[in-house]
Amino acid sequence: MKTVDQISFAGKKALIRVDFNVPLDENYNITDDNRMTAALPTIKKILKDGGKVILMSHLGRPKGGPEEKYSLKHLIPHLSDLLGQQVEFADDCIGQEAIDKSKELEKGEVLLLENLRFYKEEEKGDVAFAEKLSKLGDVYVNDAFGTAHRAHASTAVIAQFFPEAKVFGYLMAAELNNAEKILNGAAKPFTAIMGGSKVSDKIELIEKLLDKVDNLIIGGGMAYTFAKADGGNIGTSLVEADKLDLAISLKQKAKDKGVKLYLPVDNVIADAFANDAKTGVAKTGEIPDNWMGLDIGPETVKLFSKVVEESKTILWNGPMGVFEMETFLVGTKAVAEAVVAATEKGAFSLIGGGDSAAAVAKFNLTADVSYVSTGGGALLEYMEGKELPGVKAIND
Ligand code: AMP
User: Could you read off the pLDDT of 156-185 as tens digits, one per residue?
Assistant: First the structure.
């Protein structure tokens, strides 16, 4: 794997694609800076070498032109604090100002470019736009795992302009190495925990995992599609009515492949999708009309926790309930604690990005699992066995 370790950056301009797509509140305060801190090791290594750093990223979903609320300038104060030095800013990611500012950079200095997605050419993977970006640096570094599954100008297309000088940053390398540990050579028993809202989003991964895991735990909203497929009453719980056959066939496939499939046996139910709803507990398949399942129940917590705690490899993607609401976070928290307990006993645990990462962070357990991925969709696609354009572009 070609990484920043293979290059001495002294005097060179490193053009780094980072994923600084961080959440901002209405006053432009960063509410979760994980994606920024994750890129620091790469930036610091290059600066330590005596290199010059030019950072490019997207932020939010602008409509193809500049929008104040998506300006990367809001990140300058915090990024400067994190790096312990003032970060320069160019109001545009291409054009004369970006060219001038990148040329003026001294060794050890950092320049942040304005949001790449202010140009619709970015997401289109426009070659001419990628070429303009490429003029700003001597070496291209991709450290944006969160967008590695997109063939955008700055994540993939640009690499062709650096045939001899394109490498992965440390975050990318760590993400790929940790995903590989799960895909190839996972210690057994290997347990995958799948949750979240829809089975259709994760079906490809689940099918792929059936060839690898010993145990498959399914919780969260997606479990109700299985309960309904079994003919149970699920009240007004989340369901994908057109995926009942799929649920049945998944159960059969698990059986055929000797994978133990664990589904909830009981559920925390509520009379409304609200934190202050009336709640109760119902066995799976016995949810009364007008009630909905919003978390796994206490018996299920015991069942899932035992399986997780006895595992040597754990992959977790998707919460067990509506963990954003205090009333329905118990199941997700208990599973997170079981993952931590297994990790303490020597298991390797990988937490898929997105909501699972947010849940683990909410419970302050991020440091107690083996690795929390910064990629949601990117991790899923990599695990499904797809070649990520951002990875391919460097490897080619
Ligand atoms: P996903 O993006 O598919 O991983 O789904 C994550 C979302 O699923 C979170 O926002 C959870 O609140 C939601 N979720 C988990 N369990 C349930 C449930 N039983 N009913 C409704 N939503 C759920």
Answer: 999 999 999 999 999 999 999 999 999 998
- Give the per-residue pLDDT at 201: 84
Q: Which of 39, 36, 34, 116 is nearest to 361 (CA)?
A: 34
Residues in the chain: 396
Q: What does the alpha-carbon distance between residue 47 and residue 385 come to, in Å, rounded to a whole number?
A: 35
Please name each of the domains of the chain with its CATH number.
4-173 (3.40.50.1260), 186-383 (3.40.50.1260)
| Banded pLDDT at 31 (limits 50, 70, 90) | confident
Binding-site residue numbers for substrate are 19-21, 35, 58-61, 117, 150
Please, is 285 exposed, middle or buried when counting C-beta atoms within 10 Å of its C-beta (0-12, 13-18, 19+)?
Answer: middle
Determine how many CB atoms are found less than 10 A away from the CB of residue 194.
25
Query: What percent of the chain is modeled with pLDDT above 90?
Result: 92
Between strands 52-56 and 13-17, the pairing is: parallel
Q: Which residues are annotated as a binding site for ATP?
A: 202, 293, 324, 353-356
Q: Residue with the nearest Cα to atom 11 of ligand 1?
A: 322
